[in-house]
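Case study B.
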Amino acid sequence: MTTTTLTKQQPATADTATTVPYAARIDHVSKSFGRPGAQQHVLDDISIDVAPGEFVCLLGASGCGKSTLLNLVAGLDAPSAGAIETPGGRPALMFQEHALFPWLTAGRNIELALRLRGVPRAERRDEAERLLELVRLKGAYGKRVHELSGGMRQRVAMARALAQDSQLLLMDEPFAALDAITRDVLHDELTRIWTASKSDSAAGTNLSVLFVTHNVREAVRLAERVVLLSSRPGRIAREWQVDIPQPRRIEDAAVADLSIEITEQLRGEIRRHGQH
Amino acid sequence: MASTETEAQSTAAPAGDDTAAGTTVTKAGVASGDLAGLEAGLDALESTVVARQPWLRTTASKALPPVVALAIVLGLWQLAYHFELKPHYLLPSPVDVGRSLQQKWLEGTLLNFVWTSVSRGALGFLASVAIGTVLGLIVAQVKAVRAAIGPILSGLQSLPSVAWVPAAIIWFGLSDATIYAVVLLGAVPSIANGLVAGVDQISPLYLRAGRTIGATGPAGVRHVLLPAALPGYIAGLKQGWAFSWRSLMAAELIVNAPDLGTGLGQLLEQGRELQDMSWVLAAILLILIVGIGIELLIFAPIERRVLRSRGLLVKS
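Model:
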């Protein structure tokens, strides 16, 4: 009796862990906007698998449709062709703007995400405090959004995204509006949180990140894999595995070397648009 | 602006100036403790503490100019009386008006008049809020409804509510129902319009952020749409009160029957029938004071609180 239960249970658990080897699967996705006849192709036949726990950066110039692609993965829009699967449920999403609700305090913003996820009332406060501590904002619980600096707001937004307890975190140029010093610190912070989630994977918090940026060095600083998109329509131009050990620094020689290589390719993609 | 510039720099020049934060840190990367300290320092540098002025001083500095203006008006009025620009029975002095008020006060009827009007106004306003809020939400959210009655709703705002009085009298006779009908017809459109404007002004970013954390359907309305629309809604409520009060006075002036309680509008009308100018001026004064008083004591503090908590009230 016990053996049959075991054999019955094992595939079920293996189902989520091994038979779905991706946190997000973007499968031959195309997207166009506009009326038939006057259509604008934004994305053309994109296929990317994000492995569980993987950190992928989507890199491209303006008009490559990287934000559109992220919206599709987030489920805010539907692809024109192809399919997108996110087995871990609704992904968390962070924007360039903090998008925190100004009528709530920092802590309450996080609690709202917890509440909508179904966390019981009694546990919300503690969980919100824990997440604030994770982004090193202990004591900011009662602060209003306008009382926080840009970097602090983005960290609260990160805590709110983490409050969704999603396996997949989508980030749409989340640090683009910050000054260079703050951005640098938040890179370290994001790497730390992502690395910590990997070592904690037994608890099921193996965080995958799909990060959109037009900043080459940011991509190389953060990602395990950089995917370069060409523009109009967005296609995958090339991919790089980044084997530099974390924690990296944005001014590391290895980061700079790879950045130069990627930048050359990116500039090549951009030049093609000036030729006709 | 600044963000685009820094972005452009760091992409265009791979060996550029992102080193600002890194110069003092060893190449091995920042240890966790260092990062925490660095962040605490940044947070401290970038947070500004806005000290609020002492309450008494703010009030005093705000109250002084209107008080001076009021004193000047009273002075000019007294001068006009003194030089008899008009015969005294047409232009009584401020003191005469004060005596008229005092007389009503001593008769013990003054507060009754005020209370009759204020309670009618409040009741009519609350009913308008209930109807106007539901109506506003429907118009804001349902496209077909907006296309159908949206323009009518904003058009109704420019219709003076006194125009409803004759119709209401024909429908309901000289009764309380007539008074409330006029108040509702005056206030509901502006409250509904306020809410529609509030919903329209919501940044799409909040709606998008709400959807990504799972605030959809009724939860989205409750946790995102309504709180985000609150500033516009409160502005609508404020205007709704002003319209309620105006409509009420128009109705009370015309709907005059012995078995209806005497409100300020009826008091004004009685003064006119008796050709008692200081009585008429006293009634106008009371109507003005109640209208301003409720705005200052109820709506202004609520509005200020909401705006301040969202950082929308910038002090120069």
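Strands of chain A lie at 24-33, 40-50, 55-59, 81-85, 92-94, 168-172, 208-213, 225-229, 236-241. The remaining cases will be described in the next quarterly update.
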